[in-house]
Amino acid sequence: MTDSDVQTHLPRPTATRPLLGMTVLVVEDSRFASDAMRLLCLRSGARIRRADCLLSARRHLNVYRPSAAIVDLGLPDGCGAELISEMVSAVPRVGVILGTSGDSFAEDVALAAGADGFLAKPVESVLRFQSEIIAHLPPERRPGGVRMASEEPVCPDPLAYRDDMALAADVLGDDGDERMLDYVTQFLRGVAVSAGDIALQRAAEGLAEARFEGRPTKADIARVAGLVQDRLADRVAI
């Protein structure tokens, strides 16, 4: 099923809800970042579906075709660029395909895979979110008139951040899995960027740098794990 199959039965976009009638597939492993996307979609009038990994996203896409897809590049079972390439090549194609990440190099990776555009994390601005999607819609699908987007940034649920910390703690406690250590390092950096958690962001970056340079990482892992536990114990507010 596609959104176009039921488009005639859906309400038309308005000045305050320019994405009304659209469905956005958000492929994102972070609960905190996903909650930000949920709020952005809600304020824009769009429906949201979420997948937290490549496998889940492919299952969604086997059943229906969303109006737009926003794909995080760092996922637990691979790089989101793989999914972007698959969606670009699919017939029929998803109307708007955007990459997202908190990494500075990620935009080039997403665009090279065929993404229409890119949303750098943190994604807090309703206007920026709407503009990036609308800019890549076919002219006949773009809402006309003046848009009235709130300038107030979205504020995801802090409990979603705690859920991300719980996931990270589980992975950090799994000794000996090098691939998952690399994953949780980039995961924590991305979550910290989205939440403005500078201390955790720097600790994750330090661990990533140590692994890249082949230095001992025991102290870096302990530092990251301690910060994660502080956030789980609610000793640090974001």
Automatic annotation (TrEMBL):
**PANTHER family membership:** RESPONSE REGULATORY DOMAIN-CONTAINING PROTEIN, STRESS RESPONSE REGULATOR PROTEIN 1
Q: Which Gene3D superfamilies match?
A: 3.40.50.2300
Q: Which SUPFAM superfamilies match?
A: CheY-like
Q: Its Gene Ontology biological processes?
A: phosphorelay signal transduction system
Q: Which UniProt keywords apply?
A: Phosphoprotein
Pfam family, any one: Response_reg
Q: Which organism is it from?
A: Salipiger bermudensis (strain DSM 26914 / JCM 13377 / KCTC 12554 / HTCC2601)
The protein's name in its UniProt record:
Response regulator
| CDD domains documented for this protein | REC
* Lineage of the organism: Bacteria, Pseudomonadati, Pseudomonadota, Alphaproteobacteria, Rhodobacterales
Domain named Response regulatory: residues: 23-136
